[in-house]
From TrEMBL:
The organism's place on the tree of life at top rank: Bacteria
Transmembrane annotation, as ranges: 7-31, 51-83, 90-110, 122-147
Protein name: Uncharacterized protein
Higher taxonomy: Bacteria, Pseudomonadati, Pseudomonadota, Alphaproteobacteria, Hyphomicrobiales
Record carries keyword Transmembrane helix: yes
Source organism: Azorhizobium caulinodans (strain ATCC 43989 / DSM 5975 / JCM 20966 / LMG 6465 / NBRC 14845 / NCIMB 13405 / ORS 571)
UniProt keyword terms in alphabetical order: Membrane, Transmembrane, Transmembrane helix
């Protein structure tokens, strides 16, 4: 019964971890490469029409970046499956999985990432993968493994044979 509960828990935790990793990758790209904070500071004195146009562009861009990072994490599912099958719980494994999958995902799908017109900065792609891998480990990777519990129960002591009265 304990293994069934653990399997159901892993089925719930893995998608939550993937969603958190996607959000972390999107945040790195939006605030790092796009410099959203600097854009907001510069646009305080703009006309309302310009401000609405900037917000529409940010909303659309955020949607597209979320799609891009989601595609990158489809590649990472191979590493997540490996971690679950072999109970790989190392944060280094999950961070490396995020970085490699972001880089490979951006190279496999260049039309989605916009590299056909302007190449994306690989620094921010790798940074998004590193951040996503770390966030995935914090949410779901530290307890990876369908069959291996995090804290195993101590073995029950074997009963000692009664001492013979002599």
């Amino acid at each position: 019964m304990d293994s069934v509960f653990r399997l159901l828990l892993r089925i719930l935790v893995i998608p939550i971890g993937l969603l958190a990793a996607i959000l972390a990758g999107v945040a790195v790209i939006l605030f790092g490469q796009w410099r959203i904070g600097a854009l907001a500071n510069q646009s305080l004195g703009l006309a309302p029409e310009t401000w609405v146009a900037i917000m529409e562009a940010l909303f659309t861009g955020t949607f597209l970046v979320t799609f891009l990072v989601s595609v990158m994490w489809l590649v990472a599912l191979v590493g997540v499956l490996f971690a679950e099958v072999f109970a790989a719980r190392s944060w280094l494994f999950h961070v490396a999985n995020g970085a490699v999958s972001a880089f490979v995902g951006a190279r496999l799908f260049p039309r989605i990432s916009g590299e056909a017109t302007a190449p994306a900065d690989p620094f921010y792609i790798l940074a998004a993968g590193l951040a996503g891998g770390l966030v995935y480990w914090l949410v779901a990777g530290w307890s990876a493994g369908f069959w291996k519990p995090v804290r195993s129960r101590p073995p029950s002591p074997t009963p000692q044979p009664p001492a013979s009265a002599a």
